[in-house]
Amino acid sequence: MTTNELISEIKKKQSFLCIGLDVDLNKIPKHLLEKDDPIFAFNKAIIDATHHLCVAYKPNTAFYEAYGLKGWKSLKKTIDYINTNYPEIFTIADAKRGDIGNTSSMYAKAFFEDLNFDSITVAPYMGKDSVEPFLAFKNKHTILLALTSNQGAFDFQTLNVKGQDLYKQVLETSTTWENSKNLMYVVGATKAEFLTDIRKIIPHNFLLVPGIGAQGGNLQDVCKYGMNDSVGLLINSSRGIIYASNKEDFAEAAATKAKELQDQMSIILNK
Ligand SMILES: O=c1ccn([C@@H]2O[C@H](COP(=O)(O)O)[C@@H](O)[C@H]2O)c(=O)[nH]1
């Protein structure tokens, strides 16, 4: 999917919501555990109930890898289901990959070609040659970790290195890489006050912003400091939406939570 197609979906749906599909078998409704593939059954119901309220889905691969081969099959069924039934939705593999060049190329093939995700999260720690293999794919997006939502973000990302915070160097340097137009960045919703500075370095790129809902980030603050002329934000909520209920009504309850966020987004977009 191109960035322009994503922007036009945001305008059409009046939403820049990304729903995180982080499926934990201990948290889903008990009746689904009797199904052949409980993870896919859960995702399918959530997707069917919420696709008109969001523009992106983000399965975090950890929640699938944890269940071995079965989990990987559920991930494949989920992405195939979205691509077949809701091709207008932007898909994010939250896999946080990145390695030496030839290995990164194989990660990129796995997520962009075999699974056919639109984007993948990548760690910048190994530098240019670890990220460029992802950037080489046309109409695919590499979402680089910049300033993450967790407390540990302050361990390294905000360290002052040669007069500048490390995460700012990641932003600045990555814009010089081959095909950097394919870059988006992760900035945690819990770090909204940093967004003004971030936008000075990367005014145009999309930001994936996790941390609304369970982690306590504030939607209004993120939009105030992080929104640009093309919206430029994908706001993720996972647990806050998908675990709204663990009863038979779980999909409708998820849709209600998603609608609450979409309503707020619509107001913000029309201000
Ligand atoms: O900085 C980051 C980067 C990634 N995440 C991931 O986003 C979701 C958040 O889930 P919630 O349930 O809405 O808290 C999850 O997959 C994280 O691994 C993040 O939270 N922060």
Brief sketch in words of this structure:
The protein has helices spanning 3-13, 38-50, 62-65, 68-85, 101-114, 128-135, 153-156, 166-174, 195-201, 219-226, 239-242, 250-269, and strands at residues 17-20, 56-58, 90-97, 119-122, 141-147, 160-161, 164-165, 183-187, 207-210, 233-237. With 271 residues, it is α/β, with parallel strands linked by helices. α2 packs parallel to α12 and α5 packs parallel to α6 (128-135).
Q: How do the strands and helices of this protein lay out in sequence?
A:
Elements: H1 3-13, E1 17-20, H2 38-50, E2 56-58, H3 62-65, H4 68-85, E3 90-97, H5 101-114, E4 119-122, H6 128-135, E5 141-147, H7 153-156, E6 160-161, E7 164-165, H8 166-174, E8 183-187, H9 195-201, E9 207-210, H10 219-226, E10 233-237, H11 239-242, H12 250-269
Parallel strand pairs: 1-2, 1-10, 2-3, 3-4, 4-5, 5-8, 8-9, 9-10
Antiparallel strand pairs: 6-7
Helix pairs in contact: 2-4, 2-12, 5-6
Bound molecules: the ligand O=c1ccn([C@@H]2O[C@H](COP(=O)(O)O)[C@@H](O)[C@H]2O)c(=O)[nH]1.
